[in-house]
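Re-run with default settings, no changes from the original entry. Doing this only to confirm the output is reproducible before filing.
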Amino acid sequence: MTRIQALKEKNVTGESVNQIINTQHKHEAALKKTKELTTQKEKYARLKKL
């Protein structure tokens, strides 16, 4: 998320710019981790079938 987007959002929610950006980064990291775990699960399921 860019600083400008965060500034626009701040006007709506009243959160600080850094808070918004940090939250965004946390969400992105969580999504990435979830995706990795799902991929690992799928690989394991395929191996189990063999």
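Residues 6 and 18 are 8 Å apart (CA to CA). The radius of gyration is 18 Å.
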